[in-house]
Predict the 3D structure of the following.
Amino acid sequence: MPEVKPSLANQHNQQLANVLPSPIRVIDAEFSEIAGLIKLTLGEPDFAVPEHIKQAAKRDIDNDDSHYAQPAGHLELREAISNYLVNRFQAPRYDPNNEIAVTVGASEALFATMSGLFNPGEKIIIPTPSFPMYDAIAKILGLEIVGLSTAPDYRLTPEKLAPVLEANPDAKGILINYPSNPTGVTYDEAEVSALAELLGQRDMVVISDEIYAELCFDGPHTTMSKLLPEQTILVSGLSKSHAMTGYRVGYVAGPQALMQHVTKMHQFLVTTAPGPMMAAADEALNNGLQDAEEMRDAYQARRDIVQSGLEAAGFTVARPSGAFYIFAKIPEAIGMDDMAFVRDLAKEALVGVAPGLIFGEGGEGNIRLSYAASTEDLEESMRRIQAYMAKKLQA
Amino acid sequence: MPEVKPSLANQHNQQLANVLPSPIRVIDAEFSEIAGLIKLTLGEPDFAVPEHIKQAAKRDIDNDDSHYAQPAGHLELREAISNYLVNRFQAPRYDPNNEIAVTVGASEALFATMSGLFNPGEKIIIPTPSFPMYDAIAKILGLEIVGLSTAPDYRLTPEKLAPVLEANPDAKGILINYPSNPTGVTYDEAEVSALAELLGQRDMVVISDEIYAELCFDGPHTTMSKLLPEQTILVSGLSKSHAMTGYRVGYVAGPQALMQHVTKMHQFLVTTAPGPMMAAADEALNNGLQDAEEMRDAYQARRDIVQSGLEAAGFTVARPSGAFYIFAKIPEAIGMDDMAFVRDLAKEALVGVAPGLIFGEGGEGNIRLSYAASTEDLEESMRRIQAYMAKKLQA
């Protein structure tokens, strides 16, 4: 346990210091101390990786796939990604050779994309509430973040987007995410099309994080890459669709002129992704569409439990059409801000949820509940929350 | 195959654009086109991962370790790293809880360290010839690189280091690497101690990349972390010691005051490393010391083949005491620079080696040969090189 030389104790990246440590994980760690608490804080599927996918990873290990893969990843996996995106979402046919890069989860995909394409001081629009890592990476890179609150219904519309675009004609990019973490909101083809039309009038890179694309409950997913291919960088991965979070396989697809920089940056970040985990992803995309459907159906049933449960408890919820989150407005009568509320709920009702303010402007006054949990835990949580709310609202 | 919107074709990180794509891989790709060529360009062990390590990874997959690990990695692995460093190298006992982070290979370890600890414009000393990624990452981060050529014997000594330190009292860090890629040079305890004493007089972070520590042929490895713990950030990994390049497991260890920033940066880069690959690393460190020894002995025998082979062919070699590279000076009489030479050698003698200039100042006029290749290929390469040289020197 070496002590640092005192003169070095303050040597660190100043931009990084301005970023809070992942706030969801801080809250989650706090709640881990409370005995008997049901934690619905993290976006972590409770499913296991399907057996045939595990077998594929094990076969790959047996086959000694332990040498460096190409920087952009196994070519077979890039081919599988290209085919999957066309067949499943009618995306453009991305060239596996130079328009797709396999990354270490969607996290590295986002970092490689944002650091590969933008320069310090350049403006990027990040609609909120959103995944806190977007804001963090942009800050670390010294980008100028342009906010855009989608409250109160948490839907990004041309009406909300147009004035921000007009006020920021020099913005170089926008980072959108649907189905949304933390709101569960998603868009149908007409809605995506309206956004694409507006964004198509601007010279702006559209980073579209569609990691929850397989988890759409009320209609098919429409990818931005289909409607605005010449401006879109598509970010996705296997973590949510196949419960493969711990395998860390993500990807980026886009026009070669942009992807050359993303792939180059990726190479300097991690060299390449681990081979056996890529083999698992290859199997998931080639032979695992059914798995994603089964998980989606399970999440949908859980969505119904928490939506009706929270509405019965007095919350107003954004229509949760995808992902595995529900974003719910705390009734005014409760008289607590969301941070105080989630701490009180954890202590009194033994249910852990995330406070809305950590997802940025517009999130305050809400809770985010992740329903990537067992049906039993969700039903018990609803009973606890309803009892707690009844008591509070009576008082 | 979408075409980019023409107005976006030039949207990219300008610092990144100043960095060449990995030059070793460019050369390697060029040589891949030549039929019958023996490639000795990349630093890629030809061994397979030992069977018990593969079994550990497969067991971990079977045990459904497919959820997010803690950001710094499996705690058991961090404990194994801490114990290994103490037992094997008498390193300080790093606290697994906050002084060690598991990364996606040593590449990500370097990126997380350099981006976590330094700010644009800050000076970092990078002795050369060195692994080109050091220079690339420093450039991407906007650091000011202070050069220090270790030619002609490629040993970093207090005599070479002192004037550079004096001329740069404001340097915030230095990045050293031993056993060295590309030269194979390493240092005994007295030599490391002399460097540590000099560096200890400065307020400077010492990033010590010791990824080849298990591959020392002429004496034990001395870690900088033992001699200068209060300033050292130790970077290492399993890629070279256990032929696990494709599994991508590296790590960083250092005083908590510095590690907190490295670990935080790591989290924003990749969230965490993949679980099954960490389980493999855990097994390697707990039960695989013998594997590393066997590989070292094999490399040592190959080192002898290429050292005597190249000397017989007329090259002057830096004493290659570690890693699996030999750095050899092209005889003046050949009359070609190293880039022309390696291209001619590839075409005429069907042996692919890397030109010294891609490793930075002091490297020009040399070749780097990686002897992480089969004994048969190395023996045949020596025959080809000797025949080629005899012909050239006769002409």
Summary: DSSP finds 14 helices and 13 strands in chain A. The CA atoms of residues 92 and 229 of chain A lie 7 Å apart.
